[in-house]
Amino acid sequence: MALALDEARKAAARGEVPVGAVILSPSGDLLAQAGNEVLARKDPTAHAEMLVIRAAAAMIGSERLNGCDLYVTLEPCAMCAQAISLARIRRLYYGADDQKSGGVRHGGRIFSQQSCHHKPDIYSGFAEREARDLLRGFFRDRRDTG
Amino acid sequence: MALALDEARKAAARGEVPVGAVILSPSGDLLAQAGNEVLARKDPTAHAEMLVIRAAAAMIGSERLNGCDLYVTLEPCAMCAQAISLARIRRLYYGADDQKSGGVRHGGRIFSQQSCHHKPDIYSGFAEREARDLLRGFFRDRRDTG
């Protein structure tokens, strides 16, 4: 989670919403790390989770990341939660809850739907204060509406 | 929707789940068209809707597709529905309902959540029979588990 927090801080420094993510292989090797790049890539889907899923899938040469674990500083939105399901991520570790835009414990509650065909093990509250403080600081300071 | 159906047929011919999508600009010009490419790209996020959103955003140089309309042959899943919201798509036209994996009228019902910050106008039932027949034929015939 320390690496994911580093990515969140780097995203904030670029003017992006400060969220960072990491994917580890089944044996614990680092496959991918990224922060949000929505503005830099001019891509509304470029959330940290999507970037690490796509990078890790490219790295292992499969659309399924069986046995891989994803760490992210904030509760994933519905887009990212569904992508985590589609990618067959084994364990999801996230930092702070996101009451406004989260899709795991809030909103669409993706993994709680009958139509969810793969649900990872979910652990939350890691480095929660740091992740939340990063977000709060960002939204307090930002001038950009991105 | 005819163009989206063509993309769905091409996806089926490649062995992909037969879903196709198109994005039109506010003035009705074609910005992007794609079929599912999950297997070809080895990317679990490469649904037709995601590909056209990313391509259209790259084309117009903005992470927001204000005023653009998206046509897709099947009810979007939760990932694609949330991406449609994030991209600020104006109108969503889709063909057949997807009771198994849909995220608009089924599952996470993304656009019905309080946490959904942008909801497109939604129209469904276009070329419904053709879109559904393509899917049914594909799942009847396929040997691949992709």
From TrEMBL, chains A, B:
Residues annotated as the enzyme's active site: E49 (proton donor)
- In short, the EC number is 3.5.4.33
Q: Does the keyword Zinc apply?
A: yes
Keyword match Membrane: no
Which parts of the sequence belong to the CMP/dCMP-type deaminase domain?
1-105
Which cofactor is recorded for it?
A: Zn(2+)
Q: Which reaction is catalysed here?
A: adenosine(34) in tRNA + H2O + H(+) = inosine(34) in tRNA + NH4(+)
The free-text cofactor remark is:
Binds 1 zinc ion per subunit.
Pfam families linked to this entry: dCMP_cyt_deam_1 (PF00383)
Q: Which domain of life does the protein's organism represent? A: Bacteria
Q: Which UniProt keywords apply?
A: Hydrolase, Metal-binding, tRNA processing, Zinc
GO molecular function terms listed in the Swiss-Prot or TrEMBL record:
tRNA-specific adenosine-34 deaminase activity; zinc ion binding
Q: Where does Zn(2+) bind?
A: H47, C77, C80
Q: Which PANTHER family match?
A: CYTOSINE DEAMINASE FAMILY MEMBER, TRNA-SPECIFIC ADENOSINE DEAMINASE
Function per UniProt: Catalyzes the deamination of adenosine to inosine at the wobble position 34 of tRNA(Arg2).
Per the record, the similarity remark reads: Belongs to the cytidine and deoxycytidylate deaminase family. ADAT2 subfamily.
Q: Tell me the subunit arrangement.
A: Homodimer.
Identify this protein by name: tRNA-specific adenosine deaminase
Q: Which organism is it from?
A: Iodidimonas nitroreducens
Identify the coding gene.
tadA
